[in-house]
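Next comes one such specimen:
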Amino acid sequence: MKTEASVKNNNRIETLDYLRGFALLGIIFINIGQMVFATTDKTAADAAVNAFMNIAVSHRFFVIFSFLFGVGFYLFVSRAKERGDRAMLLFTRRLLLLLAIGLAHHFFQPGEALLIYSILGFLLMPFFKLKPAVVFLTGFILTIAGCFTVFLLEIWGLFLLGLWAGQIGLFRQTDRYRRGLLLTMTVSFLFLVPSYYVQEEILERTGMVDVALAAGGLSFSVFYVTALTLILRSRLAQRLLAPLNYLGRMALTNYLMQTVMILSLSALFNWPQRIHSSQLALTAAGILLIQMAASTWWFRYFRMGPAEYVWRLGTYGKKSVRHSSGMSETTVNG
C-alpha cells in the first residue's frame, strides 16, 4: 500500500484523477435535474431518489470539484515554474480559454461551473507565494462565510483550500499525511448526521435551499475526499476503481459531453415536464456507464481527452506537443 503507486512516471498524481472521476459521478445527477424539469407528479421511487440526493449528493460533489480546481492551479503553476515558463501568463491564457468554453457551455446549461471557475480563478494568483498557513486560514474563513452569505465566497475559499493542499503536497505524500487524513475522515464522518440535521433545520426555518445545502454538505464532501484518498493507497482499490481514473483524466470532455447527451435525449424523447426524477437518475447512471467505458477505451490509444488537448494546445501552443505528446498513441497499444 504505497502512495507512490498513485503517482505515475510522468509526474501525474493519479489520486486527483480518481477524485475528479468520483466528482463527475455526483455532478451529473444534479445537472440533469437542472437541465430537464421532471414532472410534478411524484412516485414513491421519485421520493426515494430525491431523499437520497438531499442526503448524499446535493452540493457535495460541486465542493469537491472546486477544491480540486485549487489543487490543479498549484500543480500547473509550480510545474510551469520548474520548466522556466512564465507560469502566471500561461495560467491566464488557460483561464481565458476556460472562460470561452464556459461561455459557450453556459448557452446550453445556464449556471454551469466553468464560467464561474474561469473568473474566480484569477483570484488565486496573489495567494500562490503566501505561506500555507495563511492560505488555509483565508480559505477556511471564506468557505464557512460563503456557506451562509455569498455562494461565490465559498467557491473562492474552496479554491484556496485546494491551493493549500497542493502547497503541502497532500496528494503527493499521502503516507506522510495518513494520520491526519484518517483523523479528518473520522471527524467528518461523525459530523455527517449533525450536518444533515443542520441542513434540514435551515431549510425548514428559512426556506433558503442554497444556504441549507452549503451548510450541510461540507462534512460529506470532506468525508468523501479523505475516505477515497485513503482507500486509493491500496493497489487493489486502484485497479477496481480504474474506470474512475479514466473518467477523471478527461473530466472536461466528459463534463461537456454530459450536457450534450442529456439535452439530446431530452429533445429526442420530449422529456420536460413528463419524465420522473427517478427516471432521470437512471438516465444519469446510464450516461456514466457509457462514459466510463468510452474513457477506458480512449486511453488505450490516446494520452488525453479531446477537450483537454484543445485546452492544452491553446495554453501552450506548439509546446503542448513537446510537453505531453499531444493526443498521440500511447505505448499500450503501439
In short: The chain has one domain: 3-299. The radius of gyration is 20 Å. Residues 3-299 form one domain.
